[in-house]
TrEMBL record:
It comes from the Bacteria. PANTHER family: HYDROGEN PEROXIDE-INDUCIBLE GENES ACTIVATOR, TRANSCRIPTIONAL DUAL REGULATOR HCAR-RELATED. It comes from Bradyrhizobium agreste. Coiled coil: none annotated. The lineage of its organism: Bacteria, Pseudomonadati, Pseudomonadota, Alphaproteobacteria, Hyphomicrobiales. Pfam families: HTH_1, LysR_substrate. This is LysR family transcriptional regulator.
């Protein structure tokens, strides 16, 4: 009989993801020697080497790579067993892992957390903030329960729930207050400040201006909306920000705001979760809390399961 524990599988999954004993041990809240011992015992139980160990890094063997995917599937199924048990209860309690993109989290997270804690005091809310591709990967692998992102994500294994539409505003130096609002064609001739590669908001801004990428001479990327607004305040260029960011990002900046003519640039904010999640009913309820927190009316015909 194969003597393998769930603990060993979770430790191996952490090591496969981090590629480093120290970081994997830290993520599992154990010591590095303890993690190393559990991995060695797992190798002995399976009768094969999982890792190629060197002084600087850890690489998976071919056997280890094949096992890593199977282990992720096993752990996801085990987690969903717990979710199934929780879903059968009348109250919503226990761990809830929510992912959010950086252009949403600073503005909605405090209100969402406050409302969820008030409505479901037994929830243990854990938040992960990172860019959309990483959130989707972690969601598919079972490391998140749901994510709040800009739609669509077009991942076949996920259900998408559109929540509300959000407009983008033009941010210009304070001296530009009252001047005509440029068209999208004129925007292509201006110094447009953007978030760095990987942010979906960057792609949305470029799409509005009918640009595939920013011209190299105009390239000046930032990793936060706050930095973009402060650069505009310094007279370096112009940028676009979502409505929800305006109260936070412009309160201490000498900038002017303007709305574009119709059709205004916008994005669809929504939630996504695995089609197989037993928590689907509860997550749908949470989507209503997100709309409440944003002060928005729920979009019609909002639930869409992607076809494989």
């Amino acid at each position: 009989m194969l003597n393998v524990t769930l603990r060993q599988l979770r430790y191996f999954d952490a090591l496969a993801r981090h590629g480093h004993f120290g970081r994997a041990a830290e993520s599992c809240s154990i010591s590095q020697p303890a993690l190393s011992m559990q991995i060695k015992e797992l190798e002995e139980a399976l009768g094969g080497l999982l890792l190629e160990r060197s002084a600087r890094q850890v690489a998976l063997t071919r056997f280890g790579e094949e096992l890593a995917q199977r282990v992720r599937d096993i752990l996801r199924s085990v987690d969903e067993l717990g979710d199934f048990a929780r879903a059968s209860q009348d109250r919503f309690a226990g761990r809830l892992r929510i992912g959010m993109i950086p252009t949403i989290a600073p503005y909605l997270l405090p209100k969402i957390t406050k409302n969820l804690t008030r409505m479901h005091p037994e929830l243990d809310i854990r938040v992960r903030e990172t860019m959309t591709p990483r959130l989707i990967q972690e969601l598919v692998e079972g490391r998140l329960d749901t994510a709040i992102v800009a739609l669509p994500v077009s991942e076949p294994s996920l259900t998408e729930v559109a929540l509300f539409e959000e407009k983008f505003l033009l941010v210009r130096p304070g001296a530009d207050e009252g001047t005509p609002v440029p068209s999208r064609e004129m925007m292509r001739e201006m110094r447009l400040l953007l978030l760095e590669e990987g942010h979906c908001f960057r792609d949305q801004a470029l799409s509005f201006c009918n640009m595939q990428s920013a011209p190299p001479r105009e390239m000046l990327d930032a990793n936060s909306l706050s930095t973009l607004v402060q650069m505009v305040s310094a007279g370096i260029g112009v940028t676009l920000i979502p409505e929800m960011a305006v109260p936070v990002e412009t309160r201490s900046a000498s900038v002017s705001l303007a709305r574009f003519r119709d059709p205004e640039p916008s994005r669809t904010i929504g939630m996504v979760w695995r089609k197989t999640s037993p928590l689907a009913r509860q997550l749908l309820q949470i989507s209503e809390v997100v709309c409440l927190s944003a002060g928005k009316v729920r979009a019609r015909q909002s639930v869409r399961s992607q076809k494989a």
